[in-house]
Structure formats: C-alpha cells, structure tokens
Amino acid sequence: MDELAHLRKRITTSFKLCGFLIRSENSSFLAEQLLPFEPTEREKWLTIITENLQGQKLATPHVERDALEKAINELNRVGLDEGETIFSLIDAFTVPRYRYNTRIKKFELDSRPRCLLPQPRMKSDYMQQRYAMLLQKTLRHDLFAPAVIQDGVAADAQTKKFKLQYAENLLATSSLKEAVVLGLLTQLKEGKFYVEDPTGCVQLDLSGARFHAGFFCEGCFVLAEGSYANGVLKVDGLGFPPAEPATSSRAFFGTGNSWGGEAAKLLKYSPRLQELERTNTETTIVFLSDVRLDLPIVMEKLRQLFVGYDSCPPQAIVLMGPFTAGTRNHHELRQHLDALGALAAGCEHLKKQTDLILVPSVEDPTAPNILPRAPLPECLAAGLLKAWPRTQLATNPCRLQYCTQQIVVCRLDLMAKFCRNTLHFPPDTTHIEQHFARTLVCQGHLVPIHPIAMPVHWDYDPALWLYPLPDLIVMGDSCQSFSSTQHDCTVLNTGSFVKSKFAFKVYIPASRTIEDSEIPGDLDMQ
To answer: pLDDT tens, 231-285?
Structure first.
C-alpha cells in the first residue's frame, strides 16, 4: 500500500513538472497500471505517457481519465496502424453486408440501413444473395470453368468438364442426358423434393441418387447431377457446391474490411500483426459451452479455472450458454451473473489481462429463438461488469479477430438439427465430424437448413456467412467434442462443459493448434 501511495506522489510530481494537473482518482488509476512494472520501467513509461499527453494538445492543464486511457491504449498499440487491433470482438449486427456484382464479378459493400423487421421482399432477397455467392465460386471451380487453351490444346484435357444448367434451361426442353443444376433443396409438395434457383424449380427423383459427404437438409444448396426428362431430373449424384480456399475468395472483395470491426482495411495481411501473432507463442483463447451458472458444481469448477489461469492469463475466456436451465426468469440470471463476478475475487492478473466474453444460447432470456441473437442485456450483467471490467457481452453468433486470424463463435445444437432434418444419413458414422465440417465449409453458412428449423433475421443473414472461410469456426454444440480441418479452416466443437466432466478447449493462435483440457472432478447433479 505504501508503494502505491509513493507511486501516486511520483505521478503527481512528474505531471506538475510537465505542466499538468491530475486528480487523486486519476493518479490512482495510473498508479495501478504502472504498479506491475519494475521501478526503472515505471519511470520510462511515465515519461512516455506525459509526452503522449503533450501531443494530445489538451484544452486545459487538468488531465482527465479519458485522456489517460487514450494515452495508454496508444502505447499498447505501438507499431500498429490506425484501426489495427490485436484482439477485438465483432457484433453480429455490425458485420458488413456484401452483394455480388455479376457485371464486374466482384463483391461490393451494401451500406443500406438494415432492421429486424425488413420489407417482405427480403425473404427471397437474402436467399438469392446466398445463391449468388455460391454460384460465382462454383463457376470458378475447375469442374465448371471453361478449359484454358494453350498452343491449340486444352491445358486440362484429362479433366471432365461440366456445364452448369439453370432451372429455366431444363424447363424449356423435353429431355437432356446430362444436366447439373445448382439450387436450393426444397419440398414444394408433400414428399416431393425440388431444386430451385432464381429462374424456376425442377422436381427431383432421388430414388437412385448417390449422396456425397455431408448432411443434405431441406434449405441447403445442392449440385444435382443426372438426366432430365418429362419435367423430372433423375438424380445420379447429389453433392454440395465446391469449397473455396479463403485466399482465393478474398481476391473478389477488394481491400475493404469484409470481416467487420473498426479497421478500414482487412487486417489479414497486416505485417505488424503477423509478426505479433508469430512471436506471442504463449497467447491462448479458452472456450467453454453449456456453462450452467445455476449448478453449484459448475461454479466451483469455474473458480478453479479462474484461479488456475490467474498466473498465466489467456487473451480471452469465452463462456457460452445456456447459463441457466430453461428459465426465462431475468432476476435469477442476474443473481447468477453477479455470482460469476464474485468467483474472480483475488484473480487480479486475470481480470486485468483477460477478456471474459459471454455468448448466450437461444434458451437464455430476453431474446427470441432467431439468429443472430442479441447479447445479454447490460442491466442483468451490471454486477459482473463491475467486478470484471473486461467482460464483453457478445451476440450469438459473434466474430473474434486475434491479430490476423478470424474466428467465428456460435452456440447452437446444430448436429441434432442436421441429423433430424437430413434426407440421407451418412453411412460412415465414425467420421461424423467430417460430414458436419464439410457441410458448413461447402455451404459457406452457419445454419444451412430450413428457416423453420432455425429462423434467421433476413436483413442480417450475412452475419452467418462463412465466406471467405475464417481460420476457425467454434461451435458450442452439446454433442461430443471434435475438430476437423478442411481447406485451411478448422471446425471445432467444444462439447458440453457440464456433460463432458468439465472439459474445455484451448486454442493457441501462434501454432493454430487446439488443446483438450479438463478440470478434474466427478459430476454430481444431485
């Protein structure tokens, strides 16, 4: 305590020598920031801070808290350009919306205002935009792109090429031996499936179809290959639109920030952030799902987690709901969040250096069962925010940016929805996680199923896009945990913290590896 008082006095003296006046509460704030450093380091940082304040050209000699915070934040970002951040949380409702321009073959930013209750035309418009996104990458794929002629010979003559047909092309003819159509898999009549695109719809005969890997649910987009006759496409093979590496996709978005956040340009190629990402080998991000705050055993394990990480704080701890068991009682949830803040008592290093991110599930109160879901209200988390100031209330889904890496986080029991709604269950159940990952990666969307199974806000559907592919997709699904990497995109399922004997996942960005961790102890629900 004497050391803190001495440091406050030293701060006041240094500021006076530089022509500044600082109130006691602000000197205490700055002293707490400098206290972890050695005495010689404190002097160096104090000099740099006063120089920064002089550069801010303050209107009065009194230094207020916001000026101090601005100086400290700028020092933490030394070497970074304007808008570059090491770590940030991106709200789903702020994710930019892009539309594909078929004339220039590029994606263009759509800056028109959006709302939760849009015009009826948006019901079809958001699906058309999703179709346009899948169509343009399918047409670029080797199987559909025109052959390149070199010296009078096709460069890829050994590869069979397909010509993509539209529904109107098939409807305008009586028969066609070979046809491939990209469209929405839908059931317009009971028991009869169709493939639909903006030009029309064609009935499918799936009796002899060979299904490729993945979950084929009503509401996803498919490539149907077969022969067309008498108004019916007899399907020989049913697959997904081909996946595309993110490096190829980004070329069609220009230099704009298609990911979201404050930066004007995409941070993916920032050399400074790439260097920080490579050198920060100890940085980790912790993910937990099904964090039931109403269970005493869970609170006990969270306390162990916080105490254990206090000596080596991660960049962020992401807690996903449901935070209580099927209750819509707002007051009860507030009490549990207050108790969560109390668990971190004494973990000062953790609270100062780690972001605590809360991602609600569709079962948590105050928002309907529609994605994207709004964050928990601040009024319910007031006690937690006071106890742990670096707490952030996230949307579901949300996006994270760590240096150059892009991470999507979503809390949804999607595996069960896929299994219930798929037309064809994959025969290879030992690698079910690969079918799950392939469905997301190829569809370029978090919930490629019928809106009845999982409703979405039409105007904010781009927040659910996985195109260009992110580096990591974190699903908080209560089924068994798994991870699968396809096209340099890792799909991770955390599993249930409650059901898996308090297991959780730790992501190490520097090596792009995932570690399985567990807090010892038996689950006692009684």
So the answer is: 999 999 999 999 999 999 999 998 889 999 988 889 998 888 999 999 999 999 9
Give the three-state DSSP class for 90: strand
Secondary structure (H, E, C), 480-525: CCEEEEECCEEEEECCCCCCCCCEEEEEECCCCEEEEEECCCCCCC
Give the pLDDT confidence score for residue 123 in this predicted structure. Answer: 94
Q: Which residues contact 339 (CB under 8 A, 6 or more apart)?
A: 293, 299
The structure tokens 């100062």 sit at 352
Q: Structure tokens of 303?
A: 């306390």
3-class DSSP state of 211: strand
What is the spatial distance between Cα 27 and Cα 10, in angstroms, rounded to a whole number? Answer: 9
- pLDDT at position 525: 40
Place of tokens 């996903």: 320
Which pLDDT does position 67 carry in this prediction?
A: 85
Sign of the CA dihedral running 201, 207, 208, 213: positive
Confidence of residue 47 (pLDDT cuts 50, 70, 90): confident
- How far is Cα 49 from Cα 28, in angstroms, rounded to an integer? 15
Q: What angle do CA 315, 317, 319 make, to 5 degrees?
A: 160
Query: Where do we find the tokens 């960005």?
Result: 509
* For the chain, percent of residues with pLDDT exceeding 90: 71
Q: What CA dihedral angle connects 325, 329, 333 and 334, to 10 degrees?
A: -170
Going across the sheet that includes 482-486, the strands are 87-90, 398-402, 405-410, 472-475, 489-493, 482-486
In angstroms, the CA 494 to CA 405 distance is 19
pLDDT digits (tens, 9 = 90+) for 339-379: 999 999 999 999 999 999 999 998 898 889 999 999 999 99
Q: In one letter, which amino acid is 161?
A: K
Cα gap 496→441, rounded to integer Å: 23
Report the alpha-carbon distance of residue 64 to residue 72 in Å, rounded. Answer: 13
Distance between CA 256 and CA 263 in Å, rounded? 9
